[in-house]
Amino acid sequence: MKKFKLSYFVFIFLLILNSNVYAKEVLREEFSPGATRVSHDVTYQNKNVKVEVIELDLNNPYLNLKVVAGDGKYTQRATVSSMAKRTNANALVNADYFNMLLQGAPDNASIIDGRLVSSPSVYTDRHTLGITSDNRAIIDTTYFEGKVIAPNNVSYPIDGLNRSYYWYDGTGEYSHENKIQVYNDFWASASRGEKKNSEVLVNSDGTVEAISQGKNFDFAVPDGKQILQVDGQALNFINANVKVGDKIKVDYKITPNYDFKFMVGGHALLVNNGQAVKYTKDINVLGGRRARTAAGISADGKKIYLAAAEGRTSRSAGLTLGELSDFMISIGCDKAVNLDGGGSTAMVLKELGSQTGSRVINPEKNSSERKVVSGIGIFNTSPATGVPKGIKFKGPDSILVGESALYDVVGAWDENLHPIDISSWTYQYDSSNNESAQFFGSYLLGLNPGSVTATLTTSNGLTATKEITVKGFDEIVKLTAKVDKKRISDGETLNVTTEAKLKDGRTIALSPKVVEYSINGFVGNFDENGNLTVSSTADLYKSEITVKVGNKTSTTTIYDSSSKIIEMTIGKKDYSINSEKKKMDTVPFVQDSRTLVPVRFVAEAIGAQVEWDAENQIVKITNNDSVMTLKVGENNYSLNDKTSEMDTKSIIKDSRTFIPIRFVAEALGLYVEYNDTDKIVTLVDLK
Known about the structure:
The chain has 687 residues and is mostly beta strands. It is 7% helix and 47% strand. The chain has 5 domains: 23-115 and 126-137 and 262-380, no CATH class; 143-255, Jelly Rolls (Sandwich), CATH 2.60.120; 388-471, Sandwich (Immunoglobulin-like); 475-560, Sandwich (Immunoglobulin-like); 564-685, 2-Layer Sandwich (Copper Amine Oxidase, Chain A, domain 1). The longest helix is centred in the middle third of the chain and has 10 residues, at 321-330.
């Protein structure tokens, strides 16, 4: 039995291509017999692009490629994810172009299990990917020919099979005028071609069952039968030579004929004879930096390369057509064709050992998946032996000191790469260096900078390993201390958590094992889990808690339980008083770097009284012994008859009076906090 191997490339594989494309191969994994996933990180003109490639070895007898039609037939569109799930494909990628405004049929020829199910449109510079009966891949231009032969041997040419209407390239001829168009039972919809055309219903032995003059039949093509849609001269041929009950011959084929068992359509060539082809067809529509799908073949026709590039997402900018050509050459293509891209591009794949597929290339702009007409599916036809061969787990390649990261088992597989049910298995994780990182169940806790080998061992003797780097505190950009409650009494306990924002953009929770805690104000003690028990508030209203990790610190404030805490979020109507949720009818906002809040909600929240002089537009706020007045639109305010000045003004918006919260709150004896990250304003009334 062939030994299947998973290889994660630790080294950097750089390819310097003709147009300065730099590609790093980051993963190579055979996930199904003859099918290898190769993940690439590509940089072009300082733009990062994620490209997934499936290399297919047609020499492998257990590899099966099949065109998958939407929800089972043409005109039944479906997403790549739903097609993969419906057919239980090991991988599936979108395929041919189609007119999104019409019923839903591919633009080009397609063959499923040796059966021709669509003909090529009469377009210039369109190509197909085919596989012959002796497992040789061919990319070529495909043509269609056929004819209907009447009982008197008079014949008329057939223009196409399962075609939506279109206009020829070059001549501009209408596809459904003076033509015979054939529809078989692979066309699911009752809507076909040109609705004003006449139709002929033909059964499986060629007998004409019915003729509809000047309109379509009002039903879909019955199983095993065909409908001929005819117009003009083609209708004249039928009327002169065919009647109900006659037996006719409906013959058609594609050329050149290489005894294809598989065929899917594409657009123009990207690569020919190992050289990039300048892309000119429909460039005004297809140009730019977009998500892309392409298919390529090796010079001997024994390898197929299916590539999908994610586009216009935060992690992947997409490729131009010229870059796509260069990339296809770099991975070994002698010839390559462009498939439908943009919003149609998506790829779903079952990781080795996984029972279900996951999307490895997301739709353009992270939009919802587009329903497409066809995809290329990859299937494992080997027998499932059930004999365990390997197991795989996943988790981050690097963690921070103090970070606790989860590692999950992806799955196990047998000798023929079929997934195995492992629900009854037991397993454990071990670290090669517990000084740097230690496992607690499935979680790995970073303790000191260094490298470790994580090993998974199952109860039946399978093992898998993963190299992990433990990084130091210099990766931290900012610390944030958080508490599970802000108000506390003597003898109570609260929990302090520490979050770290890292250079790579992630925000993680740090283990208390690496955090230093201190309290300034209240009297209390911290335990090993970051819990603070306050033994005495020492007759103080507030206290500061500081966390320190490396050379970074963060401080948060807690208050005596007699305090009243009001929290509001910029741009939201929700607010809280001592954690009790409430809602206002307008929202706080920021103007000229100052936070303005609705005065009545704030005053009522702290128990103050508000008086409004509408004629003079003066607000009067009374809180305990403090009396504050301010005039809308002016910087001056009066506190207990003493006039002062603010650097901003109160305003009226949405029929509500908004005040600059920091000046007003502090003037009334309130403590103010502002969390810029979460946009939260906190007011504390220290009773």
